[in-house]
Structure formats: structure tokens, C-alpha cells
């Protein structure tokens, strides 16, 4: 049980590095990554969205200590990520395939994060059975 909990913590820590790193990069450098010239308003929006991405990654990291007790927070963060992924999926259907990296983001948003949420719930339920406490 403790081994699986530790593995979940390590997995979340590694995967949350993606939104933390890309969010921080976007906040600091804007759309320099794409090389596209955009308006100041579009640049501002991009940095804002990057800040949200950074915050979501940091919040996932905040679940690591006592991850078995952070079910509500984990589910809420997962909901935010899935909603963002659905927005990206709609964009894909309306405008076509984005870059390889954006497709990777879509996989993280609509597949990996929900699977991690299910895994976290499983760990939380097992801890609740074993120790009699859990957050819903």
C-alpha cells in the first residue's frame, strides 16, 4: 500500500513538472516559443493562461504530501485540466491538428490526468479502509 502511494506521488510530481515548466516559460517569455508575432493583448492573454497553467501544476504538487487525503483538491484540479483539454479538442475539430507538443498536451489533459485522478481515489479509498479516515 505504501509503495503504491509513493509511486503515485512520484508520478504526479514528474507529470506536474510539465505544466509548471511550460507555464513558467510562458509567463517569462510569452509566445517566443512559437516565434509568432502577436498583438500586445494576445501576448498578455498568453502570459495569463501560462500563469494559470503554472498555478495548476503547483497545486498538483501541493497534493503530494498526504496525497491520500487530497481527493477533493485532486478532483477539482483534474476537472480544470479536463475542461481545458476539451477546449483544446474543440479547437482541434474547428481548426485542424495543432503541433506535436499540443497533441501531447491533449493526451495529458484528457487521458493521463483523469487516470491519475482515478488512481488517487483508489489510494484514498484504500487508506480510508485501512485507517478509517479520508477526505471526500
TrEMBL record:
Record protein name field: Membrane protein
Signal peptide per UniProt: none
Positions of transmembrane segments: 12-33, 45-64, 76-94, 100-119
Segments forming a coiled coil: none
Keywords for this protein: Membrane, Transmembrane, Transmembrane helix
InterPro entries: DUF4345
Amino acid at each position: 500500500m505504501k509503495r503504491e502511494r509513493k509511486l503515485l506521488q512520484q508520478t504526479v510530481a514528474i507529470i506536474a513538472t510539465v505544466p509548471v515548466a511550460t507555464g513558467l516559460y510562458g509567463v517569462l517569455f510569452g509566445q517566443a516559443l512559437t516565434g509568432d508575432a502577436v498583438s500586445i493583448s494576445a501576448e498578455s492573454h498568453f502570459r495569463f493562461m501560462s500563469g494559470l497553467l503554472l498555478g495548476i501544476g503547483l497545486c498538483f504538487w501541493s497534493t503530494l504530501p498526504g496525497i491520500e487525503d487530497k481527493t477533493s483538491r485532486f478532483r477539482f484540479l483534474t476537472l480544470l485540466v479536463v475542461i481545458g483539454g476539451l477546449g483544446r479538442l474543440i479547437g482541434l475539430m474547428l481548426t485542424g491538428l495543432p503541433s506535436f507538443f499540443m497533441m501531447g498536451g491533449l493526451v495529458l489533459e484528457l487521458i493521463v490526468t483523469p487516470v491519475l485522478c482515478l488512481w488517487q481515489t483508489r489510494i484514498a479509498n484504500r487508506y480510508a479502509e485501512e485507517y478509517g479516515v479520508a477526505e471526500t
